[in-house]
Structure prediction request, 261 residues.
Amino acid sequence: MSTTTIKEIKTKLALITTNDDPFIEEIAKDERKGVQLLLKAWKNKREKELLLHEKFLALTSYEQDLRRKGYRYIAGIDEVGRGPLAGPVVTAAVILPADFYLPGIDDSKKLSEQKREEYFAIIQKEAIAIGIGMLDAKEIDRINIYEATKQAMLMAIEELPAKPDYLLIDAMKLVTQIPSTSIIKGDSKSVSIAAASIIAKVTRDHLMKELDKEFSAYGFGKNMGYGTKEHIEALKKEGITKYHRKSFSPVKEMALSSNNG
Prediction:
């Protein structure tokens, strides 16, 4: 083994994906510190990969059960943007193929922006169908955020180019002829809902970053419309835009104050 260089060992290790490969046993006997560090790093990486694989399989349990019952086009549905002071509520409906595999996928809130963007591109490429629903601040003020979220979810389902035969919905209950299951914290329990949460989140983030170009004082590109200190200060100084929700505090009070003034 000592005739094999550490660089050669590193190259070979990169190609090994099973713990019982004879080469693993072979280099375990190599006493060189560099070799043992490589082996330790490989084992740590392999352990993380196995954990991600197991977690991914757990995320597919709802989909697997439904496919055993004969359902084929299972749409996961999620929303983002119920809490912000500005911007639309955005929903997504996503139908994934049965062989979809993306270890590491999770509720979009648990992922870094870089990971969300990476997974967004993969889902866009591999999904059978994606539908987006969106209601602006004016509609949210007119019918309330709960009803707006439901309408946007129904809109996302209608926008799907392939008709789903089953719906997995994050938390909400929808009135629809398509059979469905509402799952509390579904974006961390169903791969389809997790995919929808990523599509909805990245879509909305992109939109808020575009709004930031026009209304830079509010920090939309960073706070995505949520009520950060910077955002509240800008509201006091610059006033309310057409993208703000006038039924949400403190925008509501500011709107009333300006009307009375």
About this structure: The first helix runs from residue 6 to 13. The chain has a mean pLDDT of 94. The CA atoms of residues 58 and 202 lie 24 Å apart.
